[in-house]
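Question: does this match?
>
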Amino acid sequence: MAITAADVNKLRQETGAGMMDCKKALTEADGDFEKAKEILRKQGQKIADKRADNATAEGIVLAHVSPDGTKGRVISLACETEPVSKVADFQNLAMTILSTAVSTEAPDKEALLATPQADGRSLQDHITDLMGKIGEKVEVASYEMVSADKVISYIHSNGKLGVLVGLTNTNGTDVTEVGKDIAMQIAAMKPVALDKDGVDATIVQREIEIGKEQARQEGKPEAMLEKIAMGKLNKFYKDNTLLNQEFVKDNSITISQLLDKTSKGLTIAAFKRVAIG
């Protein structure tokens, strides 16, 4: 049957796919709209399969904190190129993913991606559809959450970096400003853990081995290597664990001391740092 411009435009309005893709799909489906939609969906899956190993170094990070300030969620939707990250369909999908995470309180990324949308299809299906429209890989790179007495969020000006920090034992103190300062500290200083007890054992072992090798290269006696390496490890903890880092706005105190100065007993329950690229 003849495919009219009105048919192509109707399919485009319903799917968001490009005009030429819609025309090809309708032609292949002999004018059957449902078959044409399925063809477009399969096109998205083909692109997803073909570009599965491609790097996604661009995208957007979004965060949400509940009205009572006790729950925060952050997502990153990643793509291959910067122009795609600016496209309305991409940004709208990112907002849909975040709002779905908030409304369903999905416990992890897998559950989030499996969540049905209004049309009965999952979030992952909608991501795959978008890949068919734009022709490159799109993925939810991160989905994190924090719960605490007070959760603060921070999104960097480039839109590609987000932080959640949860404070506990607030004792009625307004900790909004200090929370923002700490969130920005996390964004800038990239701590690997809250304190030394939270550092992964493989990282600890790696730093010890690096310390030993550095001392060995400096000609230190073999019997001294372990002690020297432990000293370097303590320096690593100071530089890379949040509570032990110097506060960037006042390097005369650590983050731990800043918390204590703000309110006795105030501490950090958890933090999450999500970045693209």
